[in-house]
């Protein structure tokens, strides 16, 4: 219906039906008009067109519902925990405006800090229960631990659990990031690890404790009822440091550090380097300084200087700087050092994997390094000296590590079970150790004899002789274990690129006795790298944000970040 417009003028006393064009008189009431629609146009009677919204409808238009608001709050909590954001971010006006624009609700307000903290506690409790349920289902758990100091000079101890689940999948997650107040004496460190194991109720399941080679951590491990597994990455990098001290490479490395400092401390010089890189068609990259505690940083410093030597030479020559470019002889020495350090970088990264079996790769990897460091007739004197210092120091550190555990782990990895990295005598000792482990495993699962049973009737001498002596049972068990070991040895070795856990998943039934031992030994990590990554989950965000958080909230947020990120993987 609409008002009639005779000669272009509006007549509010008459209306016309938009459907049949019939005309009606209008007396400020729509009753007759509605009757006409119901009588003549019943199918169209509900289509009365747009109408003005009521006050209640207008207020509800564009507003977030209660359920959506709840989901949004929970999403904010997960985001804060997963990305280690400060709780105070909910007071950020910019974030509020972003959510208002995205939701269309101009009246939306972010939840309070108290609400976020309360939800974080709830989320932490729920996730803790899920992690506990995983630990309940496994027999053996390996621990790694590392200390870390925040920008506020507060010290924290991070501890992670590593295990292989029933599906032969490597699992690892953070147990705690607890603040420590006292000095790091061995007794205090040992107490911290025990408290963590007791809190998670895994003290009787812990097999190994992985730490760096600091004296207090090594001494703490001796006080604990767990096997100690020193971090092989720390050992290797320490050997590199010792080998470089007082070597013929030191002068060239000192010169490299001056060159890097010249460009790192001057934005203008750094900009000139970018221009030279673009002119030579090279990738734009800054030079990097080597840091003793940053693994492989010396190698990276050398590589970048070698890649940008033409640009660096041009700039230093034009500036007539006191910092001089490396000579051809020094560049040649650095090239040889790069060839020596590159295998060390490869082994460090190989052993530092999180979800791959690494403990069994230690001895083959070290054997590979020893072969590379063998003297050659073409080696200059300074290279021979480096190789000698390197192999001597690495051999000493290798012998002081947990060799027994490493050898057994290597034997139970189908990639290295031929034990080519060991001598023949050592191979026999390893298989004898595995044999003893199988015997212990068998004895542990034998049912205990009930002493409360009624005495059995006396047997005749003939029946006793027919039943055989107890020694015959032991001999049969020995034969069964030998058969088990021989069956495993007869299996074909798999390629180094294949996953040993998938191999065990498919053959667990065929090697039922050996599988629990393999699960125990292969779950031990070779390094503490995963634990150290706890404190660098999002670059250095944790270090910057933890300075303003309480120790309990640091523990919750860092652990939640680790747990929630693992779910995504």
TrEMBL record:
Residues 445-455 have a biased composition (Polar residues). GO terms for cellular component: nucleus. GO terms for molecular function: DNA binding; protein dimerization activity; zinc ion binding. Residues 443-475 are annotated as: Disordered. It is found in: Nucleus. Keywords: DNA-binding, Metal-binding, Nucleus, Transcription, Transcription regulation, Zinc, Zinc-finger. PANTHER family: ZINC FINGER BED DOMAIN-CONTAINING PROTEIN 39 (PTHR46481:SF10), ZINC FINGER BED DOMAIN-CONTAINING PROTEIN 4 (PTHR46481). This is BED-type domain-containing protein. It comes from Oreochromis niloticus.
């Amino acid at each position: 219906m609409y008002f009639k417009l005779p000669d272009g003028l509006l007549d509010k006393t008459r209306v016309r039906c938009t459907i049949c064009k019939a005309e009606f008189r209008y007396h400020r009431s729509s009753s007759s008009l509605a009757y006409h629609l119901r009588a003549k146009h019943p199918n169209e009677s509900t289509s009365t067109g747009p109408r003005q919204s009521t006050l209640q409808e207008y207020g509800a238009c564009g507003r977030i519902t209660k359920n959506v608001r709840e989901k949004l709050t929970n999403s904010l909590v997960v985001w804060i925990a997963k990305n280690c954001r400060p709780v105070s971010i909910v007071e950020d006006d910019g974030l509020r405006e972003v959510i208002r624009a995205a939701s269309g609700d101009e009246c939306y307000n972010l939840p309070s800090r108290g609400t976020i903290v309360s939800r974080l506690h709830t989320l932490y409790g729920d996730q803790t229960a899920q992690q506990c349920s995983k630990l309940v289902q496994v027999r053996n758990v390996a621990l790694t631990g590392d200390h870390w100091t925040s920008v506020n000079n507060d010290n924290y101890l991070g501890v992670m659990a590593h295990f292989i689940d029933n599906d032969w999948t490597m699992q690892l997650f953070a147990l705690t990031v607890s603040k420590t107040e006292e000095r790091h004496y061995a007794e205090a460190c040992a107490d911290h690890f025990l408290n963590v194991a007791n809190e998670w109720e895994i003290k009787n399941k812990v097999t190994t404790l992985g730490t760096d080679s600091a004296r207090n951590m090594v001494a703490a491990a001796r006080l604990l009822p767990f096997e100690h597994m020193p971090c092989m990455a720390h050992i290797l990098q320490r050997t590199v440091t010792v080998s470089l001290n007082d070597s013929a490479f030191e002068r060239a490395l000192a010169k490299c550090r001056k060159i890097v400092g010249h460009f790192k401390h001057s934005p203008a010089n750094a900009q000139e380097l970018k221009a030279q890189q673009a002119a030579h068609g090279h990738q734009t990259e800054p030079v990097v300084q080597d840091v003793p505690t940053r693994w492989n940083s010396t190698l990276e410093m050398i590589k970048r200087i070698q890649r940008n030597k033409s640009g660096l030479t041009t700039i230093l020559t034009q500036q007539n700087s006191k910092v001089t470019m490396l000579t051809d002889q020094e560049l040649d020495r650095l090239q040889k050092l790069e060839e020596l350090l590159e295998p060390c970088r490869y082994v460090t990264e190989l052993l530092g994997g999180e979800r791959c079996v690494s403990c069994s790769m230690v001895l083959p990897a070290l054997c590979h390094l020893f072969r590379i460091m063998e003297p050659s007739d073409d080696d200059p004197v300074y290279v021979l000296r480096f190789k000698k210092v390197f192999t001597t120091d690495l051999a000493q550190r290798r012998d002081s590590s947990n060799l027994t555990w490493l050898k057994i782990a290597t034997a139970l990895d189908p990639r290295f079970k031929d034990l080519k990295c060991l001598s023949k005598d050592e191979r026999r000792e390893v298989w004898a150790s595995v044999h003893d482990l199988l015997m212990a495993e068998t004895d542990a699962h034998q049912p205990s004899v009930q002493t409360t049973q009624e005495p059995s009737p006396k047997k005749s001498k003939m029946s006793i002789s027919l039943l055989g002596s107890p020694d015959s049972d032991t001999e049969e068990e020995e034969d069964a274990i030998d058969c088990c070991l021989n069956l495993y040895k007869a299996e074909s070795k798999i390629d180094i690129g294949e996953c040993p856990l998938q191999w065990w998943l498919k053959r667990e039934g065929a090697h039922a006795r050996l599988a629990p031992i393999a699960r125990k030994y292969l779950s031990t990590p070779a390094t503490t790298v995963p634990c150290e990554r706890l404190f660098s989950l999002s670059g250095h965000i944790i270090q910057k944000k933890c300075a303003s958080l309480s120790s309990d909230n640091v523990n919750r947020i860092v652990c939640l970040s680790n747990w929630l990120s693992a779910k995504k993987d």
